[in-house]
Batch of 2 targets.
Target 1
Amino acid sequence: MNAVDKKIASEAQGPYETYRDALESKRLTFQHCRACGNDWLPPREDCPRCWSPDWEWREASGEATVVSWVVYHTAFDNRFAGRLPYNVALVDLDEGPRMITNLVNLPDGGDVIGRRAELVFEEDHGRMLPRFRLKDGTST
Ligand code: ZN
């Protein structure tokens, strides 16, 4: 744990706020359970596998594999109307956690399940968001 992490951890805030603070400094972190070894996202107070509160923060390498994705052509929330069409993707980080994100270079009509992707940060509405860029011609 570096000095910034210790400072953040010492403040009275929950895991989600700590996670967001890391994202603002372009670091994607996840929680690792010291009791059972589980790694997870999104942030929460206890391990979702064994309910242990004994966990630590780890930093993701940014390497991931696409599990699934969907393209929205209808805005179910008016705040996203100006973005149509947009995608929402599910990726597995190499470290284990599965997360919901967006792909920044999704090709029209292509199947990207199993494609390798790398983390990129984009500012959106004043917040730093973790998104993923498909790598060229790779699959697992
Ligand atoms: Zn656990």
Target 2
Amino acid sequence: MRVLMVAPPGAGKGTQGAVIAAHFDIPHIATGDLLRDHVARRTDLGRAVQHHLDEGELVPDRIVLDMVRAEMVEARDRGGYVLDGVPRSLSQAQELYKIGRELEMTADVALHLKAEDDELIRRLLARAALEHRSDDNEAVIRHRLDLYHTITHPIVAWYAKRGILVSVDAMRPAERVGRQILTALETMRPLLQHVPEHAREPIDLTGLSAAFGTTDTARRAVRTEGSRA
Ligand code: ADP
């Protein structure tokens, strides 16, 4: 089972990612946890990304994708993975797909956890009181939510078009959300196991740009403008 999750902060990616990983006995690859671990250990990478995390900004793609690629290579013999926190943007979705093709491990399911902002802010502030995460204060929480809506959420439509989207209402208690996710994934499991990588339909990555309202021509134009300035 190969699952990636697309969800706003506070929707329960970490909790549900752990549930899925335990149920299918697959690695739970959580980019936020991996990055926070680097920060805690004061590695070079940790020092380079700390201010991005504290301010709720995205860490540069290269850093995150290299980390995720290494974890996916490790996951190769483990029967799948559950990705938590990646992809978070158009470019990450494209790059992740390329890594998946290269390793013959493209995602079977894109799991979208839906929840309303008010509830997310309530949960994140409650967590802030207990966990003291450096990015769980109201201003940074609102910024992370803004980034989710503008940069991350649009990729949901692309996964829908690809036919691998499963959307779940994450406003309910965690156990009920978990049960619904496992029921959906178990229902799909027999179908997924019979589709070898080479038989999967290749994805047209330009379609992803279209879903974002940008085209190669438009992007080239922006780049040319930028280099002239
Ligand atoms: P949340 O979803 O609650 O914001 P995460 O633990 O998934 O929490 O992420 C925490 C922080 O880690 C993000 O705000 C960002 O700075 C960084 N991060 C995690 N995943 C990525 C990613 N795929 N791309 C860029 N930055 C990331």
